[in-house]
Amino acid sequence: MIGALRGQLLQKAPPQLLIDVAGVGYELEAPLSTFYVLPAVGQDIRLLTHLVVREDAHVLYGFATADERALFRALLKVSGVGPRIALGVLSAVTVEAFADCVRAGDAGALTRIPGIGRKTAERLVIEMRDRVADFAANKMPLTDAGAELPGSGARGEAFSALLALGYKPVEATRLLKGVEGEGHSTEDLIRQALQSAVRT
Predict the structure, then answer these.
(1) How far is it, in rounded angstroms, from Cα 11 to Cα 191?
(2) Would you place residue 141 in the very low, low, confident or very high pLDDT band (cuts 50, 70, 90)?
């Protein structure tokens, strides 16, 4: 299993990427949420990956965050959901927005995602409900690293505030991860995240 790639970004044409890793060019497909934070062609890049093996091809998928890859993997376990639909979900909504829809049983909202009809949306709500509920209870982290779900506690409130200020989900996640230590108030998290944004 190829878990991550680090190399030079050679091409980017949504949803496809080409990364040169020590002279070997790896073709990947990635959600739009990952494309939002890609550097310019020619720059170094590191992506988390998931390999899907089919009878006719091996397809590598790339993700900017552990949250995105974890949700992608969880979606693949849902009956009738393949990599194309899972990629579409991640391109259309944030991880937290998807979790909110599942918790609320809002299949209608999911049908607004391209490629998802009513039956698929209802299946997603039913089959993902337990995973989302366990995750919210900190029993089964959705992130590979067991990080806190954006949307819960002070970090969740700060995450929402950064989105309201216009930051993309992956940018907000990156800024909050840069705030060291625990026990920060929502205001402290936002202030330190914004200070970090100014410095970078």
Answers:
(1) 36
(2) very low
Arch. (CATH architecture) of 66-136: Orthogonal Bundle (1.10)
pLDDT digits (tens, 9 = 90+) for 168-196: 777 777 888 888 777 788 888 888 888 87
- Taking each helix axis as running N to C, give the angle between helix 186-199 and helix 169-177, from 0 to 180 degrees, rounded to the nearest 10: 100
Question: What region does 167 belong to: left with phi over 0, alpha with psi -120 to 50, or beta?
Answer: beta
Contacts 24+ apart (CB under 8 A), 128-136: 128/74, 128/75, 128/78, 128/102, 129/102, 129/103, 129/105, 131/74, 132/99, 132/102, 132/103, 133/103, 135/99, 136/99, 136/103
**165 vs 97: CA distance, rounded Å:** 17
- Assigned token pair, 16: 């496809």
Read off the pLDDT of each residue in 148-155 and give the average, rounded to a whole number.
53
Query: What pLDDT is recorded for position 147?
Result: 36
- Residue 136 vs residue 157, higher pLDDT: 157
Options 2.40.50.140, 2.60.120.380, 3.50.50.60, 1.10.10.60; CATH for 4-63 is: 2.40.50.140
